[in-house]
Amino acid sequence: MRMSTEEKPAAAPRSLAEALRGRDDTELAALLRSRPDLVTPVPTDLTQLATRAGTRASVVRALDRLDRFTLQTAQALAVAADPAPYGELLGLMAGDGGDPAVAAALPGAVRTLRGQALVWGGDDRLRLVRTARELLSPSPQHPSPTGLGPTVREATAGMSPGRIQEIVTAVGLPSTHDAVSAVTALTGLFTDRERMAALLAEVPFESLEVLERLVWGPPYGQVTAEPAARLRRLLDRGLLLPTAPGTVVLPREVALHLRGGRAHRTVEPVPPQVGAAATHPPRTVDATAAGQAYTALATVEELLKDWDEGGPAVLRSGGLSVRDLKRTAAALDVPEQVAAFWVELAYVAGLLASDGEADERYAATPAYDAWRERPAAERWTVLAAAWLTATRTPGLVGGRDAKDHTLSALGPGLDRSAAPEVRRRVLTLLAELPEGSAPDAGSVVERLRWERPLRAADGSAGSGATGPGGSAGPGVGDDLRSRLARWTLTEAEMLGVTGRGALSAHGRALLGTPAPAPVPAPAPKARAGRADRAPDPSGPGDRLPVHHRAAAPHPPVLAALTPAERAAASAAAARLLAPQLPEPLDHVLLQADLTAVAPGPLRRPLADTLGVLADVESKGGATVYRFTPGSVRRALDAGRAAADLHAFLAAHSRTPVPQPLTYLIDDVARRHGHLRVGAASAYVRCDDDAMLNEILADRRAAELGLRRLAPTVLAAQADPAGLLEGLRRMGFAPAAESAEGDVLITRADARRTPPRTAPEPVPEGPPVPDDTLLAAAVRAVRAGDLASTAPRRAQAGEADGTGAGSGEPPRTGVAETLATMQAAVLTGETLWIGYVNAEGAASQRVIAPVRVEGGFVTAYDHTADAVRTYPLHRITGVAELADDED
User: Fewer beta carbons below 10 Å: N end or C end of the chain?
Assistant: First the structure.
């Protein structure tokens, strides 16, 4: 193709597709990144991309992600003329008196709307895409948030021409020959500030009071069949117009005059600032957060240790029963809502799952054993990273779903796709505060509501749930994002991401956010709306004049970290947290009252063995273990001999082993295993027949159904486990044995689920494409657009083929196709072909043939930017491209 030697001035785009065609690859990639639904599947050309960008579902999703000021800008365009010049939009946003903050922020909002293909056209012809206008324009069924009603032209559409002429005459305008010109004259009067002010000056005060009640919406009112005089004056002058029997409306032009030209009562060009409720030294924050992080690790370990031998049963509908949640809360000594948080956290981290058996129960997974062997800081990052990206929402536990069913922990219905974004956004807002600053929760919620006003207005199901802190927190009417924000602040504190409400150093590293550099207070002009603005995403021909440019609002949607970035952030967080955590100890302090005091966290082997040999009596800065006959028997059941226990205590105690503890171990060991219980259905074997006689004589043994089979053997009707437990309740220390007569060793950690993967987060719409996919998508769209719009020469039987492609691929016979290909090889011309691949998908391509032989054509494919070979029988037709005119 021959290119023009002079660059022609770009014409104003006539459609959204033409506006997109004028953008460069970077701007198209930015559009696809901000609206990922447009890239799935990849559009064939820019016309299809524009069509998809105007569909209702896509537009609703795009509007849903606008901040309050940008959404207000779109709403103002919906009530403006179509198309509207930039000056009219500025007047609707800033009013007749002007507003410097609005004037500074409005260009950025327009660029955001252009960048997301919701607005197109130059400054003199701003157009809101049709679907967005339909969604945002006021109507009786769907009132506009602006509170404006229909225009004079819309309100008088069904009115008789005679009645329109009466209104025109009443306001002092000359009568016209038709209703259209009369409506035009009336509209001109209502939009003329001076003449409108003179008209309203003639209206009595009591009539103006009626207009004041309707001016900010809703614009509709009810009247009787015989309106009062104050209403009749307004109806006669067209200041109120009837829309239905008994219903009147305030015309949009009249309302705008009374509002001083403003489309909104309150315009918020600048996001509300997140205020600091308190400030603490950063070291105090980090130390407090580290203490909470250690407590989180201990709590999760305690929870899963309690479920080591098989946790609670899974409900038929899925999840944990209310009774089991209460038991878990009591075992952890926390409120039920907090227990639900820890259970859900272990679940999303892949440490807890159901075993999948017929009698399905919850238990630790094999990943839990690997997790326990990792350093404490790394174990914490596993929990924190899982929490940060999880869509499971523990705060909803105890609430109701759409079917009025109770939402249970570990059950279905707890996924909220907005949760990861809200958590990351809340923590990012905390990261923007000075180090050590704890935010005011109300200001965080207000900021999120500004960033997503449509979400805030929608609300969500399950509003009766309380937060992890145990209190209801926000009211029932709060939207989901607000409740997620409050839960995030509470959960981050419990998990140790924050300390005393402020973001810790390791929490900041987990986000991949550097510490804020101290900067001077912003100048008043910057606070008026020029801060936190994004680069210009508008395309060529769509740009604002330089004097209109201002920075765009900080985008509330944060790009998700790649796996490599998440791993690096977790490693950095672990490095910062590790020095803050207490060093594990290898010793305890034994005391004469059969207790052992652990003055800090214990090393893994010591903690595991001591957890079997003794019971935890109290926790805190130091953990107190108590030795009992039952705990010592538990250690003997696990395969430890009395000598092993004496050696273990002597090696790990900083104090001498008390004599009462030595006696306790020896006494339990002497009696342990004297009785042997096996499966016959069940039997008791003992070399001391006197002991068997004692058991038979004990009335407590009646429920076991014992009878003597031999001098040293008793048979029982109970199963071996029940028999063991019954004899232990009677004060004996029996041991289980195998069929070969060997003592069975039982370990507390024997119950594990099969390998399970952590639950995948439920995405909120299509995922954001990465740079590689974006580059490929833009390339494919460009290629398809080149093929569909490339000008071609007229073919036989065509009057004109030089225009932009009609979109239909060329159709030629086999002989003509072959001859054209061979000629193009000799001349080096570029051809436009239609091609059908092996799957039957048709496409259009622009190629430069290099070689034709053996039924194949080898050519440079401009649409793919690569040399490719195509079977001739799959080419549906060929056409020569027209030369460009100079």
Answer: C
